[in-house]
UniProtKB/TrEMBL annotation:
UniProt-listed Gene3D superfamilies: Homeodomain-like, Ribonuclease H-like superfamily/Ribonuclease H
A GO biological-process term: DNA transposition
Family of this protein: Belongs to the transposase 8 family.
InterPro entries (alphabetical): Homeodomain-like_sf, HTH-like_dom, Integrase_cat-core, RNaseH-like_sf, RNaseH_sf, Transpos_IS3, Transposase_8, Transposase_IS3/IS150/IS904
Positions of the Integrase catalytic domain: 226-291
The protein, known as: IS3 family transposase
Pfam families hit by this protein: HTH_21, HTH_Tnp_1, rve
Record-level Gene Ontology MF annotations: DNA binding; transposase activity
């Protein structure tokens, strides 16, 4: 049976004063200082009613210092973990508020505001503000994108999804690398709230040397990654996947007409045989269907 925590009168007074000064809810402050929300709510209620029992804490100075250090360690750990989830400091204030809104049940709001360098009052004002017509339209579009993605079982990419949205009468841009939200050229298809915790753009840039074919190898596609009919253009790519047991490499074969994965292979080592196996899977399947 765990030992019940005890808090000094000074700690209780400081916690109650923090609730009064910040204007935040007892739950938010409790998560920030590392106590149970119900306990802090009771302290505030008893202080407001004039009950002195709330300030009779029996914790020793040593126990109080240990509790303070544990709270500080928990705060630092939450801050580090939250920052590692993705870099959003380069985003605008609206994007940062969106991240805080999504993670509010996982991390203290004020901690996230400090990490993302926005004011808590500004976040709460944004939260209470009615969404603009543009924001409502974007939310509806993101919902539709998710529905299309789920209906296709995750098999179609942005170009095919863009065509489907245009057929439905939507006005969207297919360009994934778009200007900041709010500009006229902003790509609504990029769905900003879906990519806040993605890798930075610089980490996704291929080296300049990879854009040129090796010496002696002709560039058959000439960087035209579209096809007018199926079974005309196939491309392969290899992706590195981190697992609990180490790295795993996945090679896929893509038909540039349908943008569907038509063959794949996996291995713990990246070599040409993995690509050959992926292509052989496609050929074997085509023979089985008579194509």
């Amino acid at each position: 049976m765990s030992k019940r925590k005890r808090y000094s009168p000074e700690f209780k007074r400081e916690a109650i004063e923090l609730v009064r000064r910040s204007g935040a809810s007892c739950r938010q402050v409790a998560l920030e200082i590392g106590v149970a929300p119900d306990l802090l709510t009771r302290w505030v209620r008893e202080a407001q009613s004039g009950v002195e029992k709330a300030f009779l804490g029996t914790g020793s100075p040593r126990d109080e210092e240990l509790a303070r250090l544990k709270r500080e360690l928990a705060r630092v750990l939450r801050s580090v973990i939250f920052k590692r989830r993705g870099s959003v400091l380069c985003q605008g204030v609206i994007e940062r508020h969106t991240v805080i809104q999504r993670c509010r049940n996982e991390y203290p709001v004020r901690l996230m505001c400090r990490c993302l360098k926005v004011s808590a009052n500004g976040y709460y004002a944004w939260q209470d503000r009615a969404p603009s017509p543009r924001a409502r339209a974007n939310a509806r579009l993101v919902k539709r994108i998710r529905e299309i993605h789920e209906h296709s079982r995750g098999m179609i990419g942005a170009p095919r999804m863009h065509e489907d949205l245009l057929d439905e009468g939507e006005t969207v841009s297919p360009e994934p690398r778009c200007p900041p939200e709010g500009s006229r050229a902003h790509s609504r298809l990029a769905a900003p709230e879906e990519v806040c915790f993605g890798r930075s753009a610089s980490s996704l840039q291929p080296p300049a040397s990879s854009l040129q074919p090796p010496a002696g190898v002709s560039n058959l596609l000439e960087r035209v990654f579209t096809a007018l009919e199926p079974e005309r253009k196939w491309v392969t790519d290899i992706t590195e996947i981190s697992t609990l047991e180490g790295k795993l490499f996945l090679c896929v074969v893509l038909d540039l007409y349908s943008k569907l994965v038509i063959g794949w292979s996996m291995h713990h080592r990246q070599d040409r045989q993995m690509v050959i196996r992926a292509v052989e899977m496609v050929i074997w399947q085509r023979r089985g269907t008579g194509r």
